């Protein structure tokens, strides 16, 4: 074949080769852009969890009263949050070890022999369960409450539920509350408050030794939770020898569960002890599973 003919054929094929190269480059660029967009979408859909160390939070009650809280972030983001409310003799520090246990990220204190502050007897949390936890101190209760303030404490409980729902890394529609004594009333009242509002939701409240310390009727609040759609869980722990036991035993309902112990006038956090049968912390896990915030 003559040189001129070979050259002519190469010239005729040249545009086709150029087009193939451009098509390959364009396809490569589109693929890279699609991968980048997909990676960005995945990162946005699954944000990284916050560090496990507790964070001190200052917030306000509805009347402007400053309050001190503490946030224990979960290992997932967003995560359900448990709001823990203390009893009259103490403050939010009473719940520190229970908070670490629920958070389930390997943090804990030394333990001081007080059952609810000593994790040695705590059962294991279900595998892969990690909850965000929020504690706070009722007004006038740093180091222990000084005098009753039912109206103020009710505002504090409501504000704590709202603050917990607004924390970074929290699923605002998966809030639950647990409290002892005055905190037992606060837990059910705060949960009902959140259910009745907009922008967040409470899935249940567990009360240890409630007694009408913040509210006129514990039963009335339980009824509100039962009438919600769907009904919310309301559990009540009590000592059978306490006069306030009837606050729990007088109620019933599919969403309501009681558990009593005859340990000898055990009130509030005293119900959380290793000698109680059944183990109250195992029952707490059952409560959390009933609300749907953990898998049993």
Provide the CATH top-level class of the largest domain.
Alpha Beta
Please identify, by name, the CATH architecture of the largest domain. Answer: 3-Layer(aba) Sandwich
First-last Cα distance: 82 Å
The average pLDDT is 89
Low-confidence stretches: 38-43
Strand order of the largest sheet: 1-2-4-3-5-6-7-8
Task: Calculate Rg over CA atoms.
Answer: 28 Å
Q: How many helices in DSSP terms?
A: 7
Structure characterization notes:
The protein is 37% helix and 19% strand. The protein has 296 residues and is α/β, with parallel strands linked by helices. It folds into 2 domains: 1-46; 55-291, Rossmann fold, CATH 3.40.50. The chain has an 8-stranded mixed sheet, with helices on both faces. It is globular and about 50 Å long.
Concise account of the structure shown:
The protein is an alpha/beta fold. The chain has 7 helices and 8 strands, in the order αβββαβαβαβαβαβα.
What features would you highlight for this structure?
2 domains, globular, alpha/beta, 296 residues, 8 strands, Rossmann fold, single chain
């Amino acid at each position: 074949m003559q040189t001129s003919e070979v050259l002519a054929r190469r010239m005729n094929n040249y545009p086709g080769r150029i087009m193939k190269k451009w098509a390959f480059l364009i396809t490569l660029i589109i693929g890279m852009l699609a991968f980048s967009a997909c990676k960005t979408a995945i990162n946005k859909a699954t944000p990284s969890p916050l560090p496990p160390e507790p964070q001190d939070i200052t917030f306000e009650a509805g009347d402007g009263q400053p309050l001190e809280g503490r946030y224990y972030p979960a290992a997932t983001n967003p995560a359900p949050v448990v709001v823990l409310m203390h009893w009259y003799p103490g403050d939010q520090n009473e719940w520190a070890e229970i908070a670490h246990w629920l958070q389930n990220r390997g943090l804990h204190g030394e333990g001081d022999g007080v059952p609810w502050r000593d994790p040695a007897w705590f059962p294991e949390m279900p595998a892969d369960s990690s909850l965000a936890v929020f504690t706070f101190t009722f007004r006038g209760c740093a180091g222990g409450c000084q005098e009753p303030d039912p109206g103020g404490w009710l505002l504090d409980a409501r504000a704590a539920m709202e603050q917990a729902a607004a924390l970074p890394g929290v699923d605002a529609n998966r809030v639950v509350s647990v409290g002892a004594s005055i905190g037992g009333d606060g837990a059910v009242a705060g949960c009902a408050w959140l259910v009745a509002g907009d922008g967040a939701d409470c899935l249940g409240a567990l009360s240890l030794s409630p007694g009408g310390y913040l509210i006129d009727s514990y039963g009335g609040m339980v009824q509100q939770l039962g009438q919600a759609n769907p009904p919310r869980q309301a559990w009540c722990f009590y000592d059978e020898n306490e006069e306030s036991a009837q606050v729990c035993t007088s109620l019933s309902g599919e969403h309501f569960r009681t558990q009593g112990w005859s340990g000898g006038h055990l009130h509030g956090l005293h119900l959380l002890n290793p000698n109680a049968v059944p183990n109250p912390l195992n029952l707490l896990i059952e409560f959390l599973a009933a609300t749907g915030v953990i898998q049993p």
